[in-house]
């Protein structure tokens, strides 16, 4: 058996790419030796992993291990942070999203994002859906798009008679489902979710989790969560990240283990994964 230090070195030098027990499902996104720096400070080191189509992939690990940093790389939101530098590649449908000819705005249309706290626009429920579609050049039937998006977000029946009221008037759980409807209105293929239920009550959390189960039939979902029970409930695959101090004393994140969710929680291969999922640290 390896010592813990040897084990961590092994993980860092040979990061898993595909879930070991996955079938041959189509790969939608690939991170290839992806590292992220804020200024000169390393935040995430050489992550390589494949995200599989029509699946829910959960990213778990202690605070500061780079989970949110990673998903922001997947749709180039880190471009908006001063001093952020990304090395390596993110491949989507055969194209490197960090290539010189790639338009980040176009990337975000194909790879949507739902944030930790619900953030509806200060507009009507209808305009929360229509506004993004309109500025992105949608020319079809807007009423149909709004209704379809709200239906897919399991919100239509609750708001169909008050579409002109402010999105901010909704409950927290409804607001988060409105934000999900807004994201899928642009017809992305991938939806990134950064702890989408962390600020919600248990009933609203259950509604969002049920929605995620429904959405994976049409979308590929990557979700950051600190709630390990949530990861077991909603995800097909789980990637465990950890953090350690670099030579400058500052901590950076790295991928430890990536597999089917039941394998990560029931028979993890790495000692640090076992300790984390059993609640011994984190």
UniProtKB/TrEMBL annotation:
Q: Which InterPro entries match?
A: AAA+_ATPase, ABC_transporter-like_ATP-bd, ABC_transporter-like_CS, P-loop_NTPase, PstB-like
Renumbered residue ranges of the record's region Disordered: 1-22
Domain ABC transporter, which positions?
29-268
- One Pfam entry name: ABC_tran
One GO MF term on file is: ATP binding
What are the protein's UniProt keywords?
ATP-binding, Nucleotide-binding, Transport
Q: Entry's PROSITE patterns?
A: ABC_TRANSPORTER_1, ABC_TRANSPORTER_2
Where composition is biased (Low complexity), the residues are 1-14
Name the UniProt record assigns to this protein? Phosphate ABC transporter ATP-binding protein
Annotated source species:
Nostoc flagelliforme FACHB-838
User: What gene is behind this protein?
Assistant: pstB
């Amino acid at each position: 058996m390896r010592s813990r230090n040897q084990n961590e070195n092994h993980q860092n030098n040979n990061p898993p790419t595909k879930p070991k027990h996955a079938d041959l499902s189509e790969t939608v996104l690939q991170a290839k030796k992806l590292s992220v720096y804020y200024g000169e400070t390393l935040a995430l080191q050489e992550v390589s992993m494949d995200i599989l189509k029509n699946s829910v992939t959960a990213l778990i690990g202690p605070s500061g291990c780079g989970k949110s940093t990673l998903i922001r790389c997947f749709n180039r939101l880190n471009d908006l942070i001063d001093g952020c530098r990304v090395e390596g590649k993110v491949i989507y449908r055969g194209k490197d999203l960090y290539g010189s000819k790639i338009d980040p705005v176009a990337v975000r249309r194909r790879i949507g994002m739902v944030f930790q706290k619900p953030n509806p626009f200060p507009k009507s429920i209808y305009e929360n859906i229509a506004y993004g579609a309109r500025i992105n050049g949608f020319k079809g039937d807007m009423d149909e798009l709004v209704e379809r998006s709200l239906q897919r977000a399991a919100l239509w029946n609750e708001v169909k008679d008050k579409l002109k009221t402010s999105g901010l008037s909704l409950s927290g759980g409804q607001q988060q489902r409105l934000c999900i409807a807004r994201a899928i209105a642009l017809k992305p293929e991938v939806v990134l979710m950064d702890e989408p239920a962390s600020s919600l009550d248990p009933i609203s959390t259950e509604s969002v989790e049920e929605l995620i189960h429904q959405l994976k039939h049409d979308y590929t979902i990557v979700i950051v969560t600190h709630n390990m029970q949530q990861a077991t409930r909603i995800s097909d695959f789980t990637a465990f990240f950890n953090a350690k101090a670099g030579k400058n004393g500052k901590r950076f994140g790295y991928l430890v283990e990536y597999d089917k969710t039941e394998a990560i929680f029931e028979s993890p291969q790495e000692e640090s994964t076992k300790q984390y999922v059993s609640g011994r640290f984190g």
